[in-house]
Amino acid sequence: MFTRVATARQHHFRGGILYGMTMTTIKVPKVLRDRLHQLAVADGLTLAQEIELLMKKNAPRPEPRFGGFRSEKPLTSDEIEAKLTSGFGR
Prior knowledge:
53% of the residues lie in helices and 0% in strands. It is mainly α.
């Protein structure tokens, strides 16, 4: 019984928000909201996942103009040199 109470309290305290997520309100027309919901259901996603998918498709993150670099795998010093000499960061 104690476990049930503790678990219920933890869920109440978290407020139903998943770890790493925030709650926000976005004001949109009902037609747009319903359309987003239909897309999410059709794709088998949550509304938040559908919005993220649409953002990735239609507004990808811009490439950095300067500063850091991310690669798919660790690079050797020769590979790094090749990236730098090819004009990375210009």
